[in-house]
């Protein structure tokens, strides 16, 4: 039996983790009374009693929880932004390389990737790792997400009966190019500069479509669209959660994988202008699903256990 504590179970990510684990016979959820939810001593007791502690908290609170941990056996899986580029933390995207999977298997500190970052990194990391794009390639990224990515406050705003009419339309945000996912997008991919990033929130609950356009003439290796597609298909061929599709459809809905914990990658365009697209659920492979996948790997279980593919 594995003892699990979810610090921040009341939030969207924490609730989804609880839903995936609540009925598992191999998991015991350590409960923290509501009145002690912000009590550091009570949280410390729960963290130290856990084999796995999920942190579903704002960054400052996540850092506090890590500082509270006094147990050498507790594995911490942090879903916040706080530790995604921190030394000593495994980056929880095991499909990127054998090194990333081994780090998730062995580390006691695992950072769950950000949702927008997951889509970008799934497309760009293989390009840089394979020498197809140089680290100084001028990457751009467009990302459309459902409103659940904004947490309880944004969900309430979108589902309010008297919401502003502007919520009926897709809305760009992060226009100052200072989005909190940019540091991990740059660092994990080994880029010399951050990409130009265009996040958009739209009027649907969950799902995400992340696009990265490429100019063939700027690639370090001269590869056409079919070469790129074959490369991605081979790169992710052995993985359960990331699949490369054979054809690029005419329309790619961002909610295509809502409720699913996997990711699909599409490659289209032509040899001059190539379009890479990653589709997944911002609450699945973009958050809670990725966290549970990391837990399964860290425990030596089938990574698909209690997840939907």
Q: Mind explaining what this structure looks like?
A:
β1 (2-7), α1 and β2 form a beta-alpha-beta unit. The protein is 31% helix and 21% strand. The chain is built from nine helices and 13 strands. By secondary structure, it is α/β, with parallel strands linked by helices. The mean pLDDT is 96. A seven-stranded mixed β-sheet has the order 8-9-7-10-13-12-11. It has a six-stranded parallel β-sheet with strand order 2-1-3-4-6-5, with helices on both faces. The protein has helices at 12-21, 40-49, 59-68, 98-106, 115-129, 151-159, 182-189, 225-235, 284-298; strands spanning 2-7, 27-30, 52-55, 75-78, 90-91, 109-111, 140-146, 171-172, 196-202, 208-215, 242-244, 263-269, 273-280.
Brief characterization of the structure:
This protein is an alpha/beta fold. The chain contains nine helices and 13 strands. The chain has helices spanning 12-21, 40-49, 59-68, 98-106, 115-129, 151-159, 182-189, 225-235, 284-298, and strands spanning 2-7, 27-30, 52-55, 75-78, 90-91, 109-111, 140-146, 171-172, 196-202, 208-215, 242-244, 263-269, 273-280.
- Based on Cα principal axes, name the global outline: globular
Q: What fraction, in percent, of the residue positions are helical?
A: 25-40%
Content of β-strand: 15-25%
> Total number of helical segments?
9
Report mean pLDDT, rounded to a whole number: 96
Number of strands: 13
Radius of gyration: 19 Å
User: How is the largest sheet built, in terms of strand order?
Assistant: 8-9-7-10-13-12-11
Order of helices and strands: EHEHEHEEHEHEHEHEEHEEEH
User: Could you say which structural class the secondary elements and strand pairing correspond to?
Assistant: alpha/beta
The biggest sheet, with number of strands, parallel, antiparallel or mixed sense and barrel status, is: 7 strands, mixed
Detail the poorly predicted runs. Answer: none
Gap between N and C termini, in Å?
25 Å
EC number: 1.2.1.38
Pathway: Amino-acid biosynthesis; L-arginine biosynthesis; N(2)-acetyl-L-ornithine from L-glutamate: step 3/4
GO cellular component, one term: cytoplasm
Active site: 115
């Amino acid at each position: 039996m594995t003892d699990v504590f979810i610090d921040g179970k009341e939030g969207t990510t924490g609730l989804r983790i609880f839903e995936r684990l609540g009925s598992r016979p191999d998991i015991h959820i350590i409960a923290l009374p509501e009145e002690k939810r912000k009590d550091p001593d009570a949280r410390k007791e729960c963290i130290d009693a856990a084999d796995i502690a999920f942190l579903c908290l704002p960054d400052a609170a996540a850092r506090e929880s890590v500082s509270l941990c006094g147990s050498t056996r507790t594995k911490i899986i942090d879903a916040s932004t706080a530790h995604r580029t921190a030394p000593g933390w495994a980056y929880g995207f095991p499909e990127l390389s054998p090194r990333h999977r081994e780090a998730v298997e062995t580390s006691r500190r695992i950072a769950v990737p950000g949702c927008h970052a997951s889509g970008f990194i799934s497309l760009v990391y293989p390009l840089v790792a394979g020498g197809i794009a140089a680290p100084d390639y001028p990457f751009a990224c467009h990302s459309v997400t459902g409103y659940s990515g904004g947490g309880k406050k944004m969900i309430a705003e979108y589902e309010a009966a008297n919401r502003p009419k502007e919520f009926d339309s897709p809305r760009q945000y992060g226009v100052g190019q200072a989005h909190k996912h940019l540091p991990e997008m740059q660092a994990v991919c080994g880029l010399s500069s951050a990409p130009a990033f265009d996040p958009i929130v739209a009027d649907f609950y969950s799902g995400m479509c992340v696009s990265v356009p490429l100019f063939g003439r700027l690639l370090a290796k001269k590869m056409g669209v079919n070469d790129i597609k074959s490369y991605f298909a081979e790169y992710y061929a052995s993985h359960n959660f990331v699949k490369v599709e054979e054809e690029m459809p005419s329309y790619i809905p961002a909610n295509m994988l809502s409720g699913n914990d996997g990711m699909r990658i599409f490659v289209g365009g032509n040899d001059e202008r190539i379009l890479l697209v990653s589709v997944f659920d911002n609450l699945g492979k973009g958050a809670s699903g990725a966290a549970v996948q990391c837990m399964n790997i860290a425990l030596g279980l089938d990574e698909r256990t209690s997840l939907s593919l």
